[in-house]
Amino acid sequence: MANGGTGKLGARILIAEDEPNIVELLTFVLQRAGCEIRSVSDGEAAIAEIRRDPPDVLLLDLMLPRKDGYEVLKAVRGSATHAALPVVMLTAKGQEKDRKVAESLGVDVFITKPFSNQEVVDSVLKLART
Amino acid sequence: MLTADVVVTIALCYVGLLFLLAFLSDRWSRRGNNWIRNSPLLYTLSISVYCTSWTFYGAVGSAARNGLEFITIYLGPTLVFLGWWYLLRKLVRIGHVNRISSIADLISSRYGKSNTLAVIVTLIAVIGTTPYIALQLKAVTTSFEVVSGGRGDLLGNLSGDGTGFDAALWVAVGMALFTILFGTRNLDANEQHPGVVAAIAFEALVKLLALLLVGLYVVFSFGGLENLFSEEMSKRLLERENVFGSRWAVLTFLSATAIICLPREFQVTVVENARESHLRTAGWLFPAYLLLICLFVLPIAAAGLTRLPEGANPDMFVLTVPMAGNQEMLALFAFIGGFSSATSMVIVACIALSIMISNHIVMPVVLRLRWLGLYDSGDLKTLVLFSRRFSILLILFLGLLYYRLSAQTEALAAMGLIAFAGVAQFLPSLLAGLYWRQATARGAKLGLIAGVLLWAYTLLLPSLAEDGTFFADTIAHGLFGLEMLRPEALFGLTGFDPLVHAIVWSLTANTALLIAGSLFSEMAPLERLQSALFVDAFRNAPGDESRALVRSAAIDDLRLLSRRILGSDKADRLFLDFAQRQGRDDGVPVADNAFITHLERQIGGNVGAASARVMISEVVSGETISFDEIIRMVDETQQVIEYSQALEANSRTLHQTAAQLRQANQRLMRLDNEKDDFLSQVSHELRTPMTSIRSFAEALLKADEMPAAQAKRFMGIIHDESLRLTSLLDDILDLSHLESGEVRWQVEHLDPESAVTNAIAACEGLATETGVVITCTPSAAGPVVEGNRDRLSQILINLISNAIKYNDSPDPRVHVACEVHSDGWQVHVRDNGPGAGDVEPDQLFSKFARGWRQIAKGRSGTGLGLAISAEIARRHGGELALTETSDNGSCFTLTLPLAP
Fold first, then answer.
1. B80 pLDDT above the threshold of 80
2. Angle, to 10 degrees, between the axis of helix B71-83 and the axis of helix B278-295?
3. Model confidence pLDDT, tens digit, residues A50-102
4. Helices B297-307 and B278-295: crossing angle, nearest 10°?
5. Which helix (H) or strand (E) holds B346?
């Protein structure tokens, strides 16, 4: 949905990712799709940011310093206020067992690196609309 | 006139009856019906196998020729059974206790279980018995010809053309079949054959009845004894010069010996004996049987001499006298009686000899031939049966052969006595074995061999030479023409009957050598024990007061036993200690209860109390288990102990091996997990730059309008990430080569500080770029290490560049300090960065551990640098370690050994 016209304009996305290049890339493509972007580079910061100002969609890397993606996801799903927060998980760990763990923890979309920009954008926008 | 067909048919029916009887008896006894074994009557009747066809026909013949002389043949056994039954009882007792299987076994057992002795006895028995079997075959064929009127005539003279051989062959085949069927049916531990015993007993009745009937017929047909014995006849039969002379005495002696020493007699009297008490019945019943057997010998002889024409064969009077009176049925019955005597002798002799040949000759040879694999195959029972059957066939073949070779001579008739004289050679060894404690195996061997050689020379040789074909010169003029060596007048001893002459010489030499050999030879321990067991056969009952002698013998056995179990040193010490305790000066303890109990306990420590008790009690009282068996038990126990020790050792080894394998397995599993982790990490590390490359490229492709600067920046990222990918792959390959030990590098003596200088120079650019100040303090010592310059530089570049890259201090500095230390040469790379934090040092040097990546300025690290550096240091015999870490910085130290 590159035009981005339909859903809420300016879906607010939080990117939790420690690779600066990836953050830059995701910011670039999602801004072009009309999203409003914030980013953090570790798990603890992600949880703090969600608590402070919950986004519409969380774009979460699995291998994060301090707290990894699983722990962040667990914290989100376990919280009283934003348990329903849509989460897209990105990981360079491409193994099936990782996907299983993530799904059992309640991830909405699980995307393996390297990914197609379009796939990420579509998933984020779809989740932002609901 | 009886035709040959009728006689053959009757004989075959009779044989069939014997087979049936033996078969039924065997079956009864196998079903647990022991009446055969329990019957003293059957036992006594079976002893009468002594009366062969030689006595059946020959006694009358002998009476007709030599008058009363035939009595001696019955007198000897009668005297033994009436007067010397004590000897028989001892033989039977020993036979039971020691499970004796033959006379060869008895003599060899007594003399320390010497197999040589057993072989000697067996050979003598075979030599002595073969002609005897031939004699039986001849009697059967001759009597057959006489009674069937085929080739003989009323004179009972042999046609002598040898055609009787066919009949003899068939008789032999029949006997072989019977003996194999009922004599080797199974292997009883005690070698008893109820079927055979029953058949023999039946035959004993038949021959007795036949002889009695002929006798009664003679008496009645002549109208009483008075008519039969005219004055002239009485004179002729009863008044012979040599009655009660030396020959008479020798014959009585020989027949008395034969009832003990003949292999077949030994078989029925001792081996087949089921109960000692049966001897008591036999003691009077057997002499009674003999009395009945010889009751009508003289009347029949008188009748034959009176009624039959001059020149009639007296040996066939039993048949020809009834035939002359046209009593064909009686003659036929007499024939069956003679047939019975012959067959029963052949059967029992075959069984007895086959046991001896098989046990003492065939089996030892077969078992020694290891290459046959028979000993290891384990199926010894079949082997023994086969060997018995083979032996039976062999014996009958020898008998037939002898018969064939000598059928035309008159030598056969004398063979009975010659055989008696042969087996009489057993007597000295046998009697000495039973009554003389000091008799030794060497003495027995010397005596037996000397006796048999003399017997063969003085009796067998002349008998073979009778028809003048062989040895005639030797007989007439002595060996080598020496008159002194004339077989029938050895050393000038003349004027005696040849039989007396032979017996005197052979038995004298036999006995003398036995005594001399025994006195001049030492007894082996086993021999001593066996001697005690045999001589004191009746004294070994527990609690018997007369054990003093046994005890003195037992002390040596106890010593032997203890040595086998405890070892010589310990056993001897134990004996000596106990002797002192008993206050004995000679160092030999008295085998009293205290000592035996003490010893038993000592032995029990080695073999267990139960076994020790059995062994000790067996050595002390010698009741049922032979000393051999005990020694074997000890050896087996020893083997079991050794075996179990070996097993324990094995299981220890296995345990260790298992532990090592477990460790190895754990290490492999850890390595496997590490490999999985490594692959997973490699995959992760590769995916990260690939993600950047792919996604930026996609963004560039998709974006319609993009500022040129941004596009250029994106392309720069793609370029950098490509380089990162390349260096990552390089590092992975490098590390994997290092770890597998495949990397070989040039090693040289070098100054490590030159590598430090190189490394600092290489990092200068990066330092300038990031504003880091590098300082260096070299050591003054000018150290030399053994190593590869490039690899050492690689470590240092890695350390210094890390110190630069991860340094977020506002005033970033890196200091490199070298020193020579007792451990070797050291270089410290110290920075004032953030430190390693809470990262474990172990993890720090593992692959892809980037301790503080989140605060790193650059992203060019692969995460493998420290792992590679540590591996290179290890390969140089050195060590790389994180020696300091705090919020104010960290310090890595590389230590290398100095070159010698």
1. yes
2. 160
3. 888 888 899 988 888 788 888 888 888 888 888 888 899 988 876 777 788 88
4. 20
5. helix B328-357
- Hey, is the C-beta of B549 within 8 angstroms of any chain A C-beta? no
Q: Per the CB < 8 Å rule, is B683 touching A93? A: yes
Torsional class of B721: left (φ above 0), alpha (ψ -120 to 50), beta (otherwise): alpha
At the topology level of CATH, where does B745-896 sit?
A: Heat Shock Protein 90 (3.30.565)
Strands of the sheet containing A109-112, edge to edge, are: A36-40, A12-16, A57-61, A87-91, A109-112
Question: Which of B:704-743 have CB within 8 Å of A?
Answer: 717, 721
In this prediction, does ipTM exceed 0.95? no
In order of A124, B175, B691, the CA distances from A107 in angstroms are: 13, 102, 21
Answer whether B853 touches A (CB < 8 Å): yes
3-state secondary structure B667-709: HHHHHHHHHHHHHHHHHHHHHHHHHHHHHHHHHHHHCCCCCHH
B800 touches B840 (CB < 8 A): no
Going through B145-301 in order, the beta strands assigned E by DSSP cover: none
Spell out the CATH class of B4-409. Answer: mainly alpha
Q: Which of B690, B692, B701 to mutate to test the interface with A (most CBs of A within 10 A)?
A: B692
Q: By the CB < 8 Å criterion, does B458 face chain A?
A: no
Q: Where is pLDDT greater, at B547 or A27?
A: A27
- Give chain A's radius of gyration (CA, Å): 13
Cβ of B238 under 8 Å from any chain A Cβ? no
- Quote the distance between the C-alpha of residue B895 and its chain's center: 70
**Do you find a cis peptide bond into B287, omega within 30 degrees of 0?**
no
CB contact under 8 A, B717 and A114: no
pLDDT digits 0-9 by tens, B850-891: 444 433 434 455 667 788 888 888 888 888 888 887 878 888
Judging contacts by C-beta atoms under 8 Å, the chain B residues touching residue A25 are 692, 695-696, 699
Chain B CB contacts of A41 below 8 Å = 854
Per-residue tokens: B789: 């310059």
Quickly name the fold that domain A12-118 has.
Answer: Rossmann fold (3.40.50)
pTM above 0.90, yes or no: no
Tokens 């560049």 belong to residue: B801
Parallel/antiparallel/unpaired status of strands A87-91 and A57-61: parallel
Pairing of strands A12-16, A36-40: parallel
Q: Answer left, alpha or beta for residue A16, where phi above 0 means left and psi between -120 and 50 means alpha.
A: beta
Helix (H) or strand (E) holding B824: strand B824-831
In chain A, where the domains are located: 12-118
Closest CA to B62 of B417, B589, B544, B374: B417
Q: Where do the structural domains in chain B lie, given as residue ranges?
A: 4-409, 425-538, 543-625, 639-709, 745-896
Query: Which residues are CB-neighbours of B69 under 8 A, at least 6 positions away?
Result: B62, B63, B240, B242, B243, B247, B248, B251
Say yes or no: A99 contacts chain B, CB-CB below 8 A. Answer: no
Torsions phi, psi of B591, nearest 5?
-80, 65
Chain B residues in contact with A116 by the CB 8 A cut-off are 695, 698
Q: Distance between CA A71 and CA B246 in Å, rounded?
A: 127
Question: pLDDT, tens digit, for every residue of B469-524?
Answer: 556 666 666 665 555 666 666 666 666 677 888 888 899 999 999 999 888 887 77
Identity (one letter) of the amino acid at B624? Answer: T
Cβ-based neighbours of B668, under 8 Å, separated by 6 or more = none
Q: Supply the DSSP symbol for B547.
A: G
Q: Which residues pair with A109 in a beta bridge?
A: A88
CA–CA gap between residue B121 and residue B511 (Å, rounded): 16
